[in-house]
Every structure is written in structure tokens, then in C-alpha cells.
Amino acid sequence: MTIKKVLCVDDSYTDLVNIQTIVVGTGRFVVTASNGKEAIEMTKSEKPDLIFMDVNMPDMDGFAATRALKKDPATKDIPVVFVTSKDQKADKMWGQMQGGSGYVVKPYTSNDIVRLINTL
Question: Where are the domains of the chain?
């Protein structure tokens, strides 16, 4: 799979700019959203090849947004990588059960993000 466009979703402006900077540095085009509802809208309109999704967000968390995306035939095949401070094994398993393709714990390194982009 060739990843050209990435949607980065985070309600923290600092975290959003950080991951956006890393992804842009790999030569990919980035679109952003600040909550789960916006992520669903952006996914449908922008059709990204990959989504980096924060978990803890207002309005709709990343797990709920991912469940909605995975139920929609138009978006179900887009890989979602959760980016969160939740580091418990149960959280990682829950993310996988929601349809996540990967899980990155904050704070992460640029190498963590680049490695995921290159392996998906």
C-alpha cells in the first residue's frame, strides 16, 4: 500500500503539530482534525491512506470514531493507528478490537511514527 495522504487527529494542538511535522517530513500530505466527529467527516471528504488517531478527545473519542469508520464500506479499509498516553495492555487490546491497525504510546519518537508509516 502506498501512503500518500495521512489524516492526523488530536485535540491537543501541540501534539497535532508534532505528529503533522513528522509525517510531512516523510514526504506525505497531511490533513488534520481535532476530534472524532471531525475525523469521520475529514475521512469521508479527504480519503486518506492512513489515520493517526488520538484516543482521548471531546465530543467523540478515537475508539468511537474508529468503530464508525470501520462500519462504513467507504472507509473500513483505511488503517487507523491509535496515538495515546494509555499504555495498559487492556487499552491496546481494546484498540485492536475497535479495528486499529497499530498503537503508539505518547511520548513517541519520530522513528516510531516513520516505522509505522513504512510498515502499513
Answer: 5-119
Which class does domain 5-119 fall in? alpha beta
* Report field, pTM of the whole predicted structure over 0.85: yes
Q: What is the pLDDT along the chain (120 residues), one digit of tens a residue?
A: 789 999 999 999 999 999 999 999 999 999 999 999 999 999 999 999 999 999 999 889 999 999 999 999 999 999 999 999 888 888 788 878 889 999 999 999 999 999 999 998
**Read out DSSP for 7-45?**
EEE-S-HHHHHHHHHHHHTTT-EEEEESSHHHHHHHHHH
Round to whole Å and give the CA distance between 12 and 119: 26
Label residue 103 exposed, middle or buried (CB < 10 Å: 0-12, 13-18, 19+): buried
Phi, psi torsion values for 47, nearest 5 degrees = 50, 65
